[in-house]
Write a structure and sequence with these properties.
The chain is mostly helical. It has one domain. Helices cover 79% and strands 0% of the residues. α2 packs across α5. 28% of the residues are buried. The mean pLDDT is 92. Belongs to the nonaspanin (TM9SF) (TC 9.A.2) family. Its main location: membrane.
Amino acid sequence: MLFGGILPYGAVFVELFFILTSVWLNQFYYIFGFLFLVFVILLVTCAEITIVLCYFQLCSEDYRWWWRSYLNSGASALYLYLYAIFYFCTKLEITKLVSGILYFGYMSIIAYAFFILTGTIGFCACFWFVRKIYSSVKID
């Protein structure tokens, strides 16, 4: 399941650095057009990787694809949170306990929202795919 999160995370990795830098290091973020393009790439990547993994699961006659499709693309939030830990250790110079708790609290909320976003994209794409392939099957 963690394999499905690598590609969507890879799509937003560079942009994530700029967003974290603008939020936590008080720098300006002004590349909103590129951010929209990265968001579209994230949508397509989540949908495609989930459809491929769901297809492999259905080919092995495992029809419990509902939650797995959600977790496959939602796993990219784990990589986002691991990158937030790496960013905390390398870029930020936070030494106070309360500031660290605030940072990890906010990053947990962001990672959870990213999990909900990517998981929903993956589930909807997989749901559409399964309905499409089974609507063309003729039952005798």
